[in-house]
Amino acid sequence: MRKSWKTIAILTMIVFVTLCFGALLVEAQTKIVRRAVDNFVFDNKNHYLPCEKLPTGAEVSRIVQEHRDIIKLIEQVNPGFVGVDIDTAICPGKADLLISYASHRDRVAIESIIGGNTFFGVPYRLQNR
To answer: Which residues of 32-43 are buried (b: 16+ CB within 10 A; e: fewer)?
Structure first.
């Protein structure tokens, strides 16, 4: 049985829409495209955690104070061009660390100092400014 061009076009459109919807679902769960753009285009690193998974501002402040020597070591990677801030603006009552830097070399050094995906349990974001 021979299908008409109209039927083939409709089936093609259904497959295309299904694939697009699937790709959006995968992106929503993994943020793979967003991570790639952040990393390779902007030289940033984000944790992508929702507010309810972030620690309280008080907890972050306590950890930063306990590890002030490590914070100073991070800031000394490139004095005047590297900053460490407690960010409470996005999620009221919750916080993370926002570490800004001037070059990819700074980022590599900062990641080496931190040595993991959190700063003593505190999620952090790296932003190339």
So the answer is: eeeeeebeeeee
